[in-house]
Design brief:
The chain is α+β, with helices and mostly antiparallel strands. It has helices at residues 2-16, 315-325, 334-340, 344-386, and strands spanning 22-23, 30-32, 41-44, 51-58, 61-70, 81-86, 94-98, 103-108, 113-115, 124-126, 135-140, 143-149, 155-159, 165-170, 176-177, 182-184, 193-196, 210-213, 229-234, 243-248, 253-258, 261-268, 271-274, 283-285.
Length: 387
Amino acid sequence: MKKIYLTLLTLCITSALFSQTNTFPTSGNAGIGTLSPNSILEVKSTGAGNQIRIWDHSWPDDSYVGLGIYGSGQTSELASLGFRYHIGGTSDNGIQLGTSTSALMTLLMNGKVGVGRSNPSYKLHVAGDIRGSSTVSVEKNGNYRVALNGQSHGYIIGTNDSNESKFLIHSNGTSYMKGGYVGIGTSTTLSRLHVSSALSGGTPYNTDGITIDNTSRSVLQMLTHNTGDQYLMFGDVDKANRAWVGYNHNIDQMNFTFHNTAGKFAFTNGNVGIGVADPSEQLEVNGTIRSKKVKVEATGWPDYVFAPSYELRALSEVEDHIKENGHLPEVPSAKEIEEKGLDLGVMDATLLKKVEELTLYLIDMKKEIEVLKKENRELKLEVRAKK
């Protein structure tokens, strides 16, 4: 600092040879270019009004000495640009560049640098934005731990102590996260990827998967345009043993596909198809159904056949219908069954009706047989009596 004073003093003495508005009192402030200096040494131009000041007990307290350069027409220290040395404790000794009210840059004796801060707490402590044009990195043992690349396609990359790349966030390329868990909306991660707006309190089945967590509703969404498709794939794409769930937005249809055979399961307009790609019934199965029990709800069960008012067809009428159509009345033909299928409820009711009608025919036939038997016995008795 003494060297700074001597250099400035030399400049001031040289300038004094060409000026008569100087003052050098035995005590107090000295002025060059001014008879009323406001600092220990004030150098003032007689032209544009520029000033150079060397001060102590200033800016903004008694713990600094420094050099101030004032702009044209400025007389207040508030407008000065200063170079000052802090003479406080050893922890914050240093050099500052700034105005009388704020430090623009601070270099402390302990190696800490502040930009926009008079008391930096870190090796580089910036109060404001940092902008660069290439790469910013944080290193340890000669290797970077985190690096920010500012080229045409920027990225952020991080490594571990073994210098293995662990994550990469790329603006125009592949991004990845290797090792550890990732949480979105939560820092209490329960799996490799944990998305949560509120923890449900549940425990995932496996921590190597994806957890979507909420207290009320958890949603996994896939969105496309109205003509697009969404697929959830299982297995290798180049393997025969694979499966996927697909939704066709255009026709509002969902399909479950196994072993590359489309249409194993299909959901369309409330209809379910098994082995059918486009089911037209609520449940349509292309194959065999095996079950221990099938319950069919039906109405119009034919108990009315046994009502006294029921008109039973004559057997001759039934015979004529069979000869003409090749099947019983009210029973669908073989061709109709092949084309439209069989309605179990309706067919069971129809077959029961035919069984009940057949029962009535048998009852009538039994009555007729009893009458014939009776007549036969009477005739036998008459024949015997005549003998």
